[in-house]
Amino acid sequence: MTVSLRIDILSVVPDMLHSPLNHSIIHNAREKGLVDIQVHNLRDYSTDKHRKVDDYPFGGGAGMVLTPQPVFDCYEALISQRDYDEFIFMTPDAPQYTQRDANMLSTKSNIMILCGHYKGVDQRIRDELVTAEYSIGDYVLSGGEIAALVVADSVARLIPGVLGDAESALSDSFMDDLLDAPLYTRPAEFRGLSIPEILRSGDHKKVREWKLKMSEDKTKTIRPDLYKLYLNNQ
Ligand code: ADE
To answer: pTM score, two decimals?
Structure first.
């Protein structure tokens, strides 16, 4: 099989990324050669004799700022080897990442993801290099590594061949702006709790209708914002 997506992740704490990238679905995708994920330590690109990658903010303020030099040098080393479709920066002050973004990124060939650290990164990196910025939610993490892993995982599982059951990504929550219907497995009766009778009826049409109704009701109740999108797209 040929690699259909390469992801390069630029970080100052690369060790945070290694374990999640070496387990479960992402690990299998890498093993199968469907996704190539390379992690780069920005300190390796620092020209500072102490491998420093941060400095104080001009104009004052709390926290340190990631300096442009290691990021520009790492970026240039990578683009000299191949063309990149996107250079993504993970940061809380950005539009929220959604399934739509994952779907779009899964069609690309080469993407770079920069993990923010410290108080933030020098704005010239964002102005000159970055092509897309994403937040994974309205909260602040201690760095962009966990957010970059969210992107890598959500994109990798969409690559054809990564998930065993070809249907399973297409039927995920969010794919059609609806949350998943409740799921049940054996036993049908557990501690006096039984599963909805319709699921044992064998009537596939009725089961499909029931699942859709449950998805619609659930989405309407807990994610009215998504439900509005769903109605608009009908
Ligand atoms: N870095 C810190 N917090 C983040 C967030 N919420 N999303 C993306 N990157 C981040």
So the answer is: 0.93
